[in-house]
Amino acid sequence: VAKGDLEQISALFSHLVPEEIAELLEATPSKDRQVLWQAIPTDQQGEILTHTNEEVRANLLTTMESHEIAGLAEELETDDIVDIAQSLKPEEQEALLSSLDEQERTAVETALSFPEDTAGGLMSTDFISVRADIALDVVLRYLRQLGSLPASTTTLFVRDRDDHYVGTLKITDLLVHDGETLVEELVNTHIPAVRAYLPAKTVAHLFEKNDLISAPVVNDNNQILGRITIDDVVDIIREEAEHAQMASAGLDEDEDIFAPARRAAKRRTFWLGINLLTAIFASIVIGLFDASIEKVVALAVLMPIIASMGGIAGTQTATIVIRALATGKLAKSNSRSLLIKETTVGLFNGLIWAILTGTAVLLWFQDAALSAIFATAMLINLIAAAFAGAMIPLVLQRLKIDPALASGLMLTTVTDSLGFFVFLGLATIVLL
Amino acid sequence: VAKGDLEQISALFSHLVPEEIAELLEATPSKDRQVLWQAIPTDQQGEILTHTNEEVRANLLTTMESHEIAGLAEELETDDIVDIAQSLKPEEQEALLSSLDEQERTAVETALSFPEDTAGGLMSTDFISVRADIALDVVLRYLRQLGSLPASTTTLFVRDRDDHYVGTLKITDLLVHDGETLVEELVNTHIPAVRAYLPAKTVAHLFEKNDLISAPVVNDNNQILGRITIDDVVDIIREEAEHAQMASAGLDEDEDIFAPARRAAKRRTFWLGINLLTAIFASIVIGLFDASIEKVVALAVLMPIIASMGGIAGTQTATIVIRALATGKLAKSNSRSLLIKETTVGLFNGLIWAILTGTAVLLWFQDAALSAIFATAMLINLIAAAFAGAMIPLVLQRLKIDPALASGLMLTTVTDSLGFFVFLGLATIVLL
Q1: A420, A422, B148, B356 - which has most CB atoms within 10 Å?
Q2: Average pLDDT over chain B, rounded to whole?
Q3: How many domains, chain A?
Q4: Do the domain assignments include residue A413?
């Protein structure tokens, strides 16, 4: 992609929408990315930046001067300016803010005052609100004066005399009802307003549950501060769902796939360090039985199978539980049923694989005692794995630790150490 | 939740939206679920079914008679009837179809003729289209006659005299422009129509890229068949993102968390079987070196550490690559850069952990040769893990095998077997 000359690239870019160019930039190794970035017309750079992930955005912004960043902001709506401001260092943020006009600055400052992952941090301030006690004709005249409406406007927000949020008015109602009808006769009071401090994840669930296209954001006095639209929510939903996948490998969902190798290594090395501790723990368990292994080497040959099967079975259970927790389908009331169900699954699987692998070991090593020990250890470890796979995420959630992040390693510690311990322990008692 | 008496449950349900009841049903163990289901008013059951996942839906539908299912359909829009029909056995589907009126039946049959995961299978037929050559006043009169518009209607679809799709007309344009303006003066021809056979995943990307709320579905003649709205797309995006997470543990993203233990065990046992084969392969590798282990038991104690670190490092790389592939950010052109970057990360991490763990082994076993062998094996396995973690998903993708499903096990086979082989092999050469 990045080998052609700049003119060709510019020509190519002119056929793409900003989201596509953003994806292209994310998919481009760091050095070439800078070259591509220079080829993008300045008036499009801002829009494109709002579509890249955080790390790529920060990476591109570091190459720009303050006045260039201020230039970008001119083309953008306030929620997009907020996105960019959040990626800047404090002094650059200051410079950007001071380049905005009064009204925009206030809007951006309000949004910046809320944490990034709350409704307030997500909202834009381009919404239209009307008073409840006016007639549709008046609303229509007002809209005609405005000339154009913000994107994704399916409803207007309705407020009372004291600027409190009342409900929403469908744009389509303006079309099908008589002009003298009052707004308050048509207002839908069932669309909930979103409190500014509501976590982004909860906002996303609210949108999904109610099939919303947009929703108002209000302060503690129920006054409208801004608006969240479905396109922001789609981003949250994608990130939230990807979070579990990435977190289980100790990764961040905003990771730039072309981050410099040294930085990527540094970040991942922490996770390898934690894993080393759990692996050493399993090794110590093996070390307890080194005399047994010396006498029956088959133990060393077979022990990874028990640990590995336990790891897989536990991961299956944990994956289901983590997803159920993330989507809010598991709570105190039903977690006991799930624990019982998963342990029963572990029992079934344990029986099946104890018999099958026990037979295989008998054929391989021609040793009935070894085969019985192996089968017993397999059964115990698969049941324990299912129980731990369900229990660990549930306990972590209760302790307010992200289950997606920590479950995998804790689970492996259990299935490896327990698998080795049961197998080698039984063998030591029975064989020696 | 499910212990109270039925009246209480009914009272509770009357406060919930259908999506919430659906979540509640998914979160309820199988037996209690049937009890709850009976407590739901028949006129709400249909709407609720459209919000549950496929397995729970099929589970609930099996308990119902054909005429009850036909009853549900009366309350539903055509795309929701299609969802339900897709979960039915052929003869039940037939019965449901014959209970519909002419117009609905044609709409449902059209949608059923497309695979479930294509635009055609997702679309609903409740859309409004207008001719390009009429004036806004005429459109307004038409809409007033209809009285109410389908949910999420932000645009009307514009067609020409021969019913070909031309573009979209914003509802808000009707408000702010003069009544004599012709539709064709305002039509936005940049909103792409979706071909009926386009995969659902591609449809979702199209919506995300263009921030769409709805889009028309057309046949090969460019005639409008139906409409896809953002709420369907949100479901696709969630499923798509969850797919990778679930698939890596051999699970299906539509899995009912309260499926009967026996069925769940049967499904997961296949995955455990595949894993057993890879674990046995690793065991055979260990078996090659049983004489060495007999002489130096420390090898058996340390070997799981090498395999485990390789597994984690490889999984980190594979997770990033699988996500990049799923989101379309990796193609032929940039996969070489990624392979080089990830292998470099593997080299950095390999060096760090070879030095650290080598030192630890020296302190633990007081054996310089063993320490050097361990460090070398760690370095080699971490580099190989990074290379394999990037390579395996790329190759699987090229072979049209789902990388999310198969990468994990193939990777573990490499990191375990290679880790054991390099460590035990080096030890055999050097120590014996």
Answers
A1: A420
A2: 87
A3: 3
A4: yes
Is the CB of B128 inside 8 Å of chain A's CB atoms? Answer: no
* Contact (Cβ atoms closer than 8 angstroms) between residue B380 and residue B422: yes
Check residue B267 and give its pLDDT: 79
- Clarify whether residues A81 and A144 are in a common domain: no
Highest mean pLDDT among A140-154, B170-184, B252-266: B170-184
What does the alpha-carbon distance between residue B290 and residue B302 come to, in Å, rounded to a whole number? 14
- Given a cut of 70, whether residue B63 has pLDDT beyond it is yes
Interface contact A199, partner B, CB < 8 A: no
Out of A42-51, A360-369, B339-348, pick the least confident: A42-51
- pLDDT tens digits along A188-215: 888 889 999 999 988 988 888 888 888 9
Kindly list the residues from chain A whose CB atom is less than 8 angstroms away from the CB atom of residue B236.
none
Average pLDDT for residues B179-188, to the nearest whole number?
90
Note whether B234 contacts A231, CB cutoff 8 Å: no
Of B264, B270, B34, the C-alpha closest to B254 is B264
Its domain, for residue A191, covers: 129-230
In a domain, A242, yes or no: no
On whether residue B274 sits in a domain, the answer given is: yes
In terms of Cα–Cα distance, which of A212, A226, A223, A40 is closest to A122?
Answer: A226
Judged against a pLDDT cut of 90, whether residue B414 lies above it is answered with: yes
Same domain, A366 and A304: yes
Secondary structure of residue A61 in the 3-state scheme: helix
CA closest to A156 among chain B residues: B172
Of residues B19, B174, B272, nearest to A175 (C-beta)? B174
Burial class (CB in 10 A: 0-12, 13-18, 19+), A348: buried
pLDDT, position A1: 47
- Which residues numbered 310-339 in A keep a CB inside 8 Å of some CB on B? 312-313, 315-316, 319-320, 323-324, 327-331, 333-334, 337-338
